[in-house]
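Case study: Cobalamin-binding protein.
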Amino acid sequence: MKNLITASILTCLISFGLTVSSSGMAASKANIKPATRIIALAPHIVESLFDIGAGDKIVATVDYADYPVEALDIPRVGGYYGIQMEKILALKPDLIIVWKGGNQDADIAQLEKLGLPVIYSEPTSLSGVTAELRMFGELTGLSHNAEVLADQFEDDLEIIQRRYGNRHPVDVFYQLWSEPMMTVNKNTWINQLIETCGGVNVFANNPTEYPQISIENVIVAQPSIIIMPQEKSDKPQPKIDWQKWTVVPAVKNNQFMEVDADLIHRFSRRMLIGLGDMCKKIDGFR
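Here is what the predicted structure looks like once written out:
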């Protein structure tokens, strides 16, 4: 794993036009000037940078980057709808961290076309959180801090996996959104969290990662638990009157549960708080 992390970091550094010794990361460190003016284009990136002690290096971020509280004072340069290129150029960043899942492809392409130092935050697994922490540590000169936090994350995750991973499977429906009704399939981050808790996603085999579904689909799937994520938003989820559909086991047995979307949906260390809460609630319905 660490060899893969090192290779990833080296690739990023080469893309910045920095000198990297052929003898590897150890030799390259002396040639790397830590980033001091970072634009972090996703909330989870901001969280991780603050975690390792690099929060004071962030010169701009995006909407919804609200944790820790100090992040609220960072200037905004856009959101999921797009970014303001003029502001970014004026800030003269020496590192821009983008998230393909939350930034527009056209914006990312424009940043790269302008020759700006862009790297990608794209964790696709739980272990990707630790890989990213270590990468951010290398790029900011805070490797020791990042290593300590990554090791702690791995230990805490292992505890959760041991506690819940072998429990009796239970079918769950993750109501990602209500109007239109949406859920997740097996290729998503959320599905990994459900499986970690010993849950079985009833829509795991849907060919679309975030499929739009109907009440009828849920009736056919017969979930035992319905999970409803809650997040701080100007537009809260519309409510569904599930009591009309007592043919669904989760409704018949009143097995609904809420989870904190700001924890569960972000690729940061705080995710473990949300994961532990979700696993405990699922276990309570067993």
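For the exam, be able to explain this: Residues 1-30 have pLDDT under 50 and may be disordered.
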